[in-house]
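[Structure tokenization] protein backbone as discrete codes

[Encoding] learned vocabulary of local backbone shapes

[Begin record] amino acids and matching fold tokens:

___
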Amino acid sequence: MLLPRLPVPALAVDTVAHGAFDLSTETTENFTLVVFYRGLHCPLCAKYLLELERLVPEFEKRGVSVIALSSDDAERAAAMARKVGATHLRFGYGVALSSAKEWGLYISSSRGLTSIGIEEPALFAEPGVFLVRPDGTLFYGAVQTMPFARPNFNDLLGGLDFAIPSNYPARGEYSGPV
């Protein structure tokens, strides 16, 4: 389990149109927003990423860089980027499932064709949303076992509008006995 205020696992992938991404060398003023999505087969992911694409400039105004990641291959990731009309959002691909597990993501097995007629991969990671500080420590994290009920990006922006100027600390860091 990832804990706030502690380093997140390494994360380095290729992107569809922005070269290599390595979280350890990402330069951002306040945070990197790392959004793991299920893959091209997921219609709810496409809807979610459409909203993120629209809001990337708002995150950037707050000193937050943004990337969407999946275990899809380059071809499927490029198809998702086209589907959401990505002009701002970076799409990384090829996240190893072992890396997804290190990030605390749930792994699902294929159920065949989805409602939009796209085959699910044999195994894939379920969604997760993370804010990582420039020093590589976790500030915020949310993981889901299902494609629905994900964090709302407008709510996240509102939280950033409070947290950044007030230097609000990451919460949930306690790991001792209870």
